[in-house]
Amino acid sequence: xxxxxxxxxxxxxxxxxxxxxxxxxxxxxxxxxxxxxxxxxxxxxxxxxxxxxxxxxxxxxxxxxxxxxxxxxxxxxxxxxxxxxxxxxxxxxxxxxxxxxxxxxxxxxxxxxxxxxxxxxxxxxxxxxxxxxxxxxxxxxxxxxxxxxxxxxxxxxxxxxxxxxxxxxxxxxxxxxxxxxxxxxxxxxxxxxxxxxxxxxxxxxxxxxxxxxxxxxxxxxxxxxxxxxxxxxxxxxxxxxxxxxxxxxxxxxxxxxxxxxxxxxxxxxxxxxxxxxxxxxxxxxxxxxxxxxxxxxxxxxxxxxxxxxxxxxxxxxxxxxxxxxxxxxxxxxxxxxxxxxxxxxxxxxxxxxxxxxxxxxxxxxxxxxxxxxxxxxxxxxxxxxxxxxxxxxxxxxxxxxxxxxxxxxxxxxxxxxxxxxxxxxxxxxxxxxxxxxxxxxxxxxxxxxxxxxxxxxxxxxxxxxxxxxxxxxxxxxxxxxxxxxxxxxxxxxxxxxxxxxxxxxxxxxxxxxxxxxxxxxxxxxxxxxxxxxxxxxxxxxxxxxxxxxxxxxxxxxxxxxxxxxxxxxxxxxxxxxxxxxxxxxxxxxxxxxxxxxxxxxxxxxxxxxxxxxxxxxxxxxxxxxxxxxxxxxxxxxx
Amino acid sequence: xxxxxxxxxxxxxxxxxxxxxxxxxxxxxxxxxxxxxxxxxxxxxxxxxxxxxxxxxxxxxxxxxxxxxxxxxxxxxxxxxxxxxxxxxxxxxxxxxxxxxxxxxxxxxxxxxxxxxxxxxxxxxxxxxxxxxxxxxxxxxxxxxxxxxxxxxxxxxxxxxxxxxxxxxxxxxxxxxxxxxxxxxxxxxxxxxxxxxxxxxxxxxxxxxxxxxxxxxxxxxxxxxxxxxxxxxxxxxxxxxxxxxxxxxxxxxxxxxxxxxxxxxxxxxxxxxxxxxxxxxxxxxxxxxxxxxxxxxxxxxxxxxxxxxxxxxxxxxxxxxxxxxxxxxxxxxxxxxxxxxxxxxxxxxxxxxxxxxxxxxxxxxxxxxxxxxxxxxxxxxxxxxxxxxxxxxxxxxxxxxxxxxxxxxxxxxxxxxxxxxxxxxxxxxxxxxxxxxxxxxxxxxxxxxxxxxxxxxxxxxxxxxxxxxxxxxxxxxxxxxxxxxxxxxxxxxxxxxxxxxxxxxxxxxxxxxxxxxxxxxxxxxxxxxxxxxxxxxxxxxxxxxxxxxxxxxxxxxxxxxxxxxxxxxxxxxxxxxxxxxxxxxxxxxxxxxxxxxxxxxxxxxxxxxxxxxxxxxxxxxxxxxxxxxxxxxxxxxx
Lengths: 638, 638
Hints:
- Two copies of one chain form a homodimer.
- By secondary structure, chain A is of the alpha/beta class.
- Chain A folds into four domains: about 5-90, Beta-grasp domain (Ubiquitin-like (UB roll)), CATH 3.10.20.30; about 115-180, Ubiquitin-like (UB roll) (Roll), CATH 3.10.20.880; about 190-335, Domain of unknown function (DUF4445) (Nucleotidyltransferase, domain 5), CATH 3.30.420; about 355-638, no CATH class.
- Chain A has a six-stranded mixed β-sheet, sandwiched between helices. In chain A, strands 2-1-5-3-4 form a five-stranded mixed β-sheet.
- In chain A, helix 13 (about 505-530) crosses helix 17.
- Chains A and B meet through helix 3, helix 4 and helix 16 of A and helix 3, helix 4 and helix 16 of B.
């Protein structure tokens, strides 16, 4: 008999052959376990607590105390006999909190990707026996041969027209007929905007007739199992086939669609529930690798110099061809990108910010798993990728986490340690905005020197991974009365061990955060230098990304992530990529703006730019080698 | 054990469940047997000679003598035990003789449906790392977003570009990228033109770079098993599903393609053999029902008043979508039609004739399984369907046959019976041109009166189906020394019975031919009447269709099929539909001309037109009630 593995808190059991890794068993059981290194035992994200017959290897990612409590890495543990596995919340891939877009651009008029047109046809007679399609074309005002009609639609046309008793709604994407449906009192027409991040996928269902947002959902990108960054995933694809990666991203989106749509065609046209068949348009923004994987394009050459994608443009495709569960002929539009490491997500940011319509020069910083910077105005755009690393999204930091329930998002050390968590639940880790606050506050209160070294303090101790600062003692967190039941977690005996962990930040964590902020700052400086201007010339600075619900500008300036400009010049956009995708879904002008941005944008390659390395070195301090560039911080420190 | 059925002359055996009809068994065994009524026992086309355990019904289509010799209808015979079946040549569906196009229109310049463009790309560098597609677009002179690129092609693009070491051939259909191939010394680019007749399918392989015809093949439409005319096939589809009909037409074309192409990709670009992958464009002409079946469109409404097709226009499709075995992304262009019974084959005739480019008014008659008439010039076109019936293609006539080996194609009764057969083989039946000659000659020599009644003569006798004229006595045919081996037929003992049949024409046959010619003549008169002109106003009369290799104009006028005009005004086009398809394959101007003809053409519905019935009655004589309309015939008869 095959060994049985049971996963908690989901309570799912599965029989697997002996020798299967717990990570593989979890995938087979449909239990999503975090993993950022494709099962190589490197990232330490797949920590689980195990009881039973498992052969496992030790890992520096598991402390001695944790090991004694049953903590193991799922990828390094092979099933030998029956066992029970608890997946702690930190290792789960779960629906995450949405950080909504902050920009509401006023659209002059709606010109959605797919428009619905009511058409009342004359029923044919012996003396007016034009073909069904020609009858429709005439009513829609198209000359014969000037409208593209997919064969699959043509096959259904005679029945649809007769079902509608010669009154139909036609759905048009430019000169392409997307669908024809019998007319049901109102012409319902829906679309979805999707932002595919390396880490998170967010989706909005939108009424294309009114522009109104109906619902918004998001989830982790299920590809996370195969690696945390794009390079890890491309490598995984080279070894195991790209199909699996395409499947996982489509699967992620289809799960999100299932949460906002019904698959019961009977509900179409009735009531408030939107039927998947009524979704006629899909607008997607994402980085170049994600777009390749969504379309099933080979991303191999993105990895190797000179880093050429297959394309940065949107191909002609529809939902059925890539496997999205909406109307099979729904138009799929991808926001165009510019280069392998400046993708459609960045151009969507540009569209959402409006910077390419302004006379004044703006800087846009997108701090995602990577980190991209754009500089320019209505006449020109420069862009680069900072290869910043995922520190502000919770990566490469021991107690780092994404902006979800339990993430510490605000920290103040003025007059004692104070913090607040997202969802007001028991603290589980620190998200981007919390890290910015923490580093800034440690630096301003003297706990941290400008090189990022911890100074002696009652909260600084020698931990397993070197010097560390304790932000939250587990006993204090308990005292705060955060209740497991209140957080919605299933209570499991094994969970107790989780509560024993203090939330700390090590010197290595701090070094990683400094590296990330330094590379973003240096990237911005190289673009300014290329344009021959300085920070002071900037009319606006836009900040996009998933740090958290907000960002404390003073603290972000204090660590040298943002330039020391008057604070009113900054705008925090939140998930601007999703906003940009939605604008492109709703407006032809915005789709043209995106294409114009693709054309106008000059990509600056930093990987061979000596200026970047020089400026990165100078910026690898708190806030910077040259304190004159941060006068407001210098004043506080004095 | 299941009974075994063996079919000769193919020598194929198959085990089938008891109760299977011989027609079904033949289909299962891959033996093609003629059938025109979808197995209802009505048409009498599936005559076979049987020995063995078969339960069968009598049929008026089998004479007593034939019954005694073992003749049965395959559709009415159910297998009970082992049996041997001989399929006589008349009942076989075999590759048939080609009646090639007679028009060679001079094209001002080649502008094929798909053009090949050589493109030498700059290899990317770190400072010029545009995406693969964008690099190609730039070289081809396309702005980003202005060229449609199928996703399936985009998936192959990076490898193809690198296989070609940055030198490729791009294949373009307007603003659609059809394929990209590594550049192999020459840009080979091929297309096929196809004429899909209800009875016959003809195909030409063409070099799109030079316009040169490489090879030409034709075959019976394999749908013949499911009925002889379009209505029988639509009905068959309603009962058994349209899929089967689509499958059979695609199957017919793919068999023809296999005769002109190689499926070994290794041969691509080398030598003279054309690889299927190198065929980038397909241009098809056919009647409206055939076009529906080719595309898998529902032809149901073609059958019922007011006779509306799904469309008369070419949809956006490619070879893979409909299942043609050429390059999967090859563009498929259908010559547009005008109505349910005036299809793309007729508009292809118009294009081949050039009548829509002429100032003078022309009449075009296409005598196929149906029969269509077009009248007009560069400013206007009128068209109608004559519902003429298949008499001139060998249908509805006892010894009628298509224009293939052994068909009597010329007859003269002046100074004794003289005839010649296609391929100079033993006479097997009479094709269209032979029937025209025979009736005219019988009429002119007084064997036939103007009502179509046979007059006493040494060759007129009372046959099983009433009065009949014997054109060929079997004993004479034997005496002529026609040798079975010379005709390529497999010799089989059962075949002897075949030779015993005289070739005759009955009064019922004659009535069918008169009905056919009368309806074509009446249709032409209605169009002239609608335009307010007379035959004398015609600058030219074009005759298209599969009568045979030629048509004797005097005889065609003598029976009243053609108007009595100076003979130099007539042009015999042969298979003009195939010519038209080829012109559309090679020339944008011709494709536009076809679309312009679709727009300019007014369809005249005859089924409810009293003028048509009046004129049909008057024309149902030899040559016509009003002899003044045929002065040259009146002179001969006097």
